[in-house]
Structures are given as structure tokens and as C-alpha cells.
Amino acid sequence: MTHLALRGSTEPFFAACESVLGVRPPTAPNTVASSPTRSILWLGPDEWLVVQPKIGSVPDLVEELRRALAGIHSAVVDVTSSRKALAVSGERAEELLAKAATLDFSLAGFPVGSCAQTNVARTQGIIWRRGAQDFVVYVRSSFAPYLRAWLADAGEG
């Protein structure tokens, strides 16, 4: 997967991102906007994470975004190597994640298309609910083995 950090806050920023990415960064807190090829997770009032399969050249996409954003107060950074994605899915996914993080993972409290930055088993992570029983947890690469083992252990108990 490719991960890009986006920063910006003006209408020209949103328009430029949409023209290149084919999807506008969401402005509602803790939401995700998606197209068939990529998703953009809201991380803060002026911060997003773009997630997409590794298609094409990441440096070319970064350069295309930077050209579109030229003269606009913004930032685009390839953060692909900094994070790993861990899938958590199944009938007991909510229960497992509730052991790791202090969010309400019910569909009412954390609906499909929601995301949140939070502590996950004592490390910082981003949780995205892609489906009723389908989550992705993004964590720093160096913490991925720890969190994978922690989730496996918590899932057994």
C-alpha cells in the first residue's frame, strides 16, 4: 500500500487534491472519502492520510500533487515506509479492538467509513472501519510486530 500525508486547508488545496486524486479530502472529523482506487482518511482539521494500492510510481504521484499544489500553503509527504496496515475482521473484531483501544466500536458509535487516531495497545495508531466487521489498523512499522502479537494474544483470551 501507498501512504501519503497531506496538509492544507484552503479551497484551492481541496480542488487541487481532488483534481489529482479523483476524490476530495473529507472535512468532517474522523471520516473517510473513497474512490475505486484510493481512500483519504481525515486525521485533523488540516491533515489527511491517502491510502491506495501500489499502482504506478509513488514519486510520480507525489510530484503531480506538488505541481498541482504549487503556490498553495500545503505539504505532501510519502510516508509509505513509516506505517504498516493490520487487518482485523470477523464476528468478534469489535470485541478484540475494544480490548486494545478506548473507542466505542459499535456500529452506532463507530460507523462504517469512520477513522480515528488513538492509542492501540499502548502504541499510537489509526483505526479505519471499512465494513461492518472489517477494520484496518495503521501503526508505525517498528510497532507492527508488537501489535500483531498483542492482537493475536488478545484474540485467544
Name the features.
157 residues, Alpha-Beta Plaits, Gyrase A, domain 2, 2 domains, 5-stranded antiparallel sheet, 4-stranded antiparallel sheet, 4 helices, 9 strands
Could you describe the 3D structure shown?
There is one protein chain. Helix content is 27%, strand content 36%. By secondary structure, it is of the alpha+beta class. It folds into 2 domains: 2-78, Alpha-Beta Plaits, CATH 3.30.70; 82-156, Probable tRNA modification gtpase trme, domain 1 (Gyrase A, domain 2), CATH 3.30.1360.120. A hairpin with a 4-residue loop joins strand 2 (32-34) and strand 3 (39-44). The model has no long low-confidence stretch (mean pLDDT 95).
Q: Under the CATH scheme, which class of the largest domain?
A: Alpha Beta
The CATH homologous superfamily name of the largest domain equals: Heterotetrameric sarcosine oxidase
* C-alpha geometry: globular
User: How large is the radius of gyration?
Assistant: 16 Å
Beta-strand content bin: 35-45%
